[in-house]
Amino acid sequence: MSRHRTTAVQSERLRTYRPDIQGLRAIAIMMVVAMHCGILDIHGGVDVSFVLSGFLIGGQLFAEIDKTGRVSLSKFWARRFRRLAPGMAITLIATAVLSWIYVSPFRFRDYMSDGLAASVSLINWRLAENGTDYFANDGSQSPYQHFWSLGIEEQFYVVAPLVLVAMVWLSRLIFRNRALVVVFLMAVIAGSFYLGYSQTETNQPMAYFSTPSRIWEIAFGVLLALAAPLLSRMNPGFAAVLSWLGLATILVTGMMITAETPLPGYAVAGPLLGAAAVIAGGCANPTFGAEKILDNPVFNFIGNVSYGWFLWHWPLLILWPSIIEREFTYQDRLRVAVLSLLVAVATHYLIEKKFRESVRIAISPWRGVATGGALMASTVAAMALALHIVPLNLSVGTSTAAAASGFDGTESVKTAVAERTNPKLSQKSLLSAPDDRGDHGCIDDLLIKSYDQRDDCVIGDKTADRTMVVLGDSHAFQWGNTFHKLGKELNVKVVTVIKSGCPALEYTVTREDLGREYTECGLWRTSALAAIEKIEPDVVVVTNRAQETATREGARTTFDTLKDTGAELVYLTDTPYPDFNVPDCLAKNSKGLSACSPRSERVIDRTETRAMERGVAEEHGATVIDTIPAFCADGYCPAVIGGKVVYWDYSHMSGTYAESLAPFLRPTFEEVLDKK
Length: 676
Known about the structure:
Strand order of the largest sheet: 1-3-2-6-7-8
Structural class: mainly alpha
Number of domains: 2
Shape: elongated
Number of helices: 28
Distance between the termini: 96 Å
Largest sheet: 6 strands, mixed
Strand content: 5-15%
Radius of gyration: 29 Å
């Protein structure tokens, strides 16, 4: 018997249906839903799914290669389309409709951009490029965000049959066996794992979402499929123990991972290796393996509807707070989990099952490919239509021009408070608000460890003899337009020394998106203070977001260093912190626009920290400017002042409102500069 026929016979000995894999599929989706909905802090469900997909698809491809020596691309892709395209299309479009009804117009446009990327299976790259924090809990998540893992799998489905056929052919040609395929898969696994591990520290979103850093998990499943004939010969007792250890590893390591664990890193290897052990042990079909638990009617049912549950749970979870318009409770999370399961059951029996079992589509592979292509094209068209043509559902109904002077003295703030239930705001001003982020000054990214002055760091009058430095984090960067205008008017060169999320004062900061202490901040601050000393500025302005980790010693350390430069010190108190997206609120708020202009005690947070920093600044002879009168009056902090939206997001000033504050600061800076 030839080697080819021997391999084929061995493959035929393997079970065509694996109830333990069906149970593992159920466990994976339950882990995903439980983690996303906050029911149980367990991670790794997606990693289990990746290795399952690799094993199942790899097994199908190798079996076909063994029997025919090739792979029918039309049949392979038709099967994938029949399974994935119908549920995906209806979820994408239904989510778009719900988003248009319930979320703000600005969010709707962002969501449709994500939906368009998801419909062509490239959303993982969009999320990676945008630096998305998957575990953010600030309302920034997209209802299409979970499609990132499906996108990676679909990219694999396009490439895998072509690559595996080529590698099998080369391996037989050179070695007369599959040694080259094994070497190739191991190289992919090692290289991809290393890339994901190393990028976790330097570019976590790219490591988490990109295909090259995640493909090792699917490739691991393909390697298992290649080894399945050999694994089927394992001692049954050993195979049973291996499967039980694998199941325990999935659950234990999944619960050891938290939102603070740097992911993917090495942590995802735990659930993946556990799933691999269950799969490997099941190849030998041991009598007392983990299949005893995994093979049951409940898991079999959940496994059948798992794809639909995956598709529906996340959009409902993200949109539910906007639908109910109240605080999102634990009971609501349970409701989302149950409701999404019910919708998944309906989707499975009414849509998915009909497409999979359609004789008319199945009898012609290219008809299946064409049907899937038509569904994808229709979804792409729907997303593009929603993105570019569907009118925005704005809560501000007037389109007439409104006065847009911004801040014009403290009386303008009092007027804005009086008009907070019906602010004078044009649609044009509102529509421009989310992109009105200011365009003067520089800000260093999270991972930059040292300050280097660049051309974009110098604003105001660049040729002036007098120099002013603005030091701080993004709450300093938001003043860029203000200081650019002031510098022009007062003939001062302004150097912005600013880093994202890094306070000017010497505080320790831990960031959830990094999953660790923000060590880059301390290193950057040290180099920034050294750079300021070399600049020999006439004035140093200090301002930053009030931090919960603030200490008097940390504040004194920075002010001591700055005082030694001989510069005049100015301290700007922190601006209000609405903690909700202000343009979103103005664009769509069924409870009335007054909700967008909350009471001052709600948005002037961390009052003890603010008072401490002000006191330390005064101890060091700094001139203190209280910024609150430019934002709040009579117990309220309005969202619109002088026809301008005050914030472009949840806490940062819009660029045009910041520019309008130059007269508010000018008298103080004229006095300070006269001292030099």
